[in-house]
Amino acid sequence: MASAPGLTSRFGRLWARFDGPGRLAGVDLARGLAVLGMLAAHLLDTEDFVVRDPSSWLDVVNGRSSILFAVLAGVSISLVTGGTRPVVGPRRARAAARLALRGALLWAIGMLLVLTGVPVYVILPAYALLFALSLPFLGMRSRGLFLTAGALAVVMPWVQPVLDAAPIWSGRSGEDIAAMLGWHYPFPVWIAFLLVGMGLGRLELRLLPEQAMIMLGGGALMLAGYGLAIVTAPAVAADPYLSAVLTADAHSAGLWEVIGSGGFAIATIGLCLLLCRTPLRWVAVPLRAVGSMPLTAYVVQLLVWALVALILLGDTSDLWGIRALDLFAPLTLAIVIGCTVWALTVGRGPLETVIDAVVRLVVGRDAVGRDAVGRDAVGRDAESPGTRGG
Q1: pTM
Q2: Which UniProt keywords apply (predicted)?
């Protein structure tokens, strides 16, 4: 009985960290949804999305989950570099060093996951590059970030097919280079997702008008992108180059995917922020717990996949074999329960804790006060399907 006050006090501190005023529950919820989308994209065989066929709606996870992660990574980067007031001077230099080192650690973890042979396009190497590319933009405010993201979103899909056709991707060495660069999530296009997320993170995300604007703005972009994809499809079908550019197909890096799926990610973040103003905030605690440690959840699901496939199938690369084992439901349930218990009894996710400890050891503590929302920022990721994406 004597230990009860201590346990109560510890639980109170952990709950305050998880649900305190310094944490944006809606951002965690969006991350949790992205993790579940990643799991579904990895482990379920989904049909092509057809609006009039509800049985195909699960296809929404393909491609959009990874883009949601990229946008959320940008949100988190802004939150840990000053939020609405970007850091400057020596504080910015320290923040940049921390982000660069986190990116390097993520790249190393990503390459270890690639070596497991699991048939997933591991997103961590791409994230590492995106973090490095974000460094020159740390001092920008939301307007500049949105304008830069918009320019890249419109221009780079026209360049991407030319880059994809480069001889460097040929042969076995080309596959290795693609894995190291995370080219399934090509950074020339995907930097737009990160920058728009950074722009969102420079807004006052706790205000109702801002949250509503984010949801409505993202919804408008989503309708525009997917609508234009439908309208232009017949006209570009006969031209391989235009078909590669003017498409909303998942993982295409096409113009309409960038606008439509980018808008979907923005709208999802806005909706999650709004939902967490309601009692659904409490119902969503398990999803928010997953979203509080997405790097751990991502890595664990791939390692479990590799272990189960190796034991039961003798081959970690057997995609259809692992899907036939119906691993999605038990693995998802285990991750949700495990993350919830960990968040409420231990706190920060284990991998997030290790990365932060290494960064503090090498670079030092944050240059700005740590925002509970973004402190695990640089460990987000994911996805796959088709045969490998997400």
Answers
A1: 0.90
A2: Membrane, Transmembrane, Transmembrane helix
